[in-house]
Amino acid sequence: MPSKPLEPGDPARLGRFKLLGRLGEGGQGVVYLGRGTNPGEERVAVKVLRSTVDANVLERLARELDAIHQVQPFVTAGVIEASAEGDRRYVVSEFIDGPSLQERVDERGPLPAGDLQRLAVGTATALTAIHGAGVVHRDFKRPTCCSDPTARASSTSVSPGSPTRRRSRAG
Question: Is 87 a catalytic residue?
């Protein structure tokens, strides 16, 4: 998924991550494409929560960020860093460089049976692992479900209740 340019008012960096562009925007916040400042670091997805998110949502996010580290990293985009305090609340995860399910179906039509089965198994495995860690995904749908060529599924949606995303391509 190509990123769009940063908009006026977007941060240029968060923590040790330089933001390179926008991947998407939803009700809870904006997802950026970023890269660590150390040489050779891979791209990451950075989800920044809106400042208008209420205290209950932030409290749940902090609890679930603690729990997400129990999820096996081979099934979802791994969380690299997170901040649930301060003015900018964000989650940094691996960026999975692949289309959303919506983009893939719009471009090529229905998935062939084998691709659909791999995506279904990868997605079910990821959701089982996430739920096993006590995290509930609250925004799982075609535009936020992504996969890479290895069929690892994730979501761009990092709503409180699912700090996963697109290598964050996560929600």
Answer: no
What's the pTM value of the predicted model, to 2 decimals? Answer: 0.77
Across 4-139, the runs of DSSP E, i.e. the strands, are 13-14, 17-25, 29-36, 43-49, 79-83, 90-94
Q: Which residues contact 170 (CB under 8 A, 6 or more apart)?
A: 45, 47, 76, 77, 93, 94, 96, 146, 154, 155, 156, 157, 158, 162, 163, 164
User: Which CATH number goes with the domain that contains 139?
Assistant: 1.10.510.10
Given 10, 54, 97, 139, which residue is catalytic?
Answer: 139
Reduced to 3 states, what is the DSSP secondary structure of residue 117? helix
* pLDDT of 40 over the 70 cut: yes
Domain coverage including residue 54: 13-155
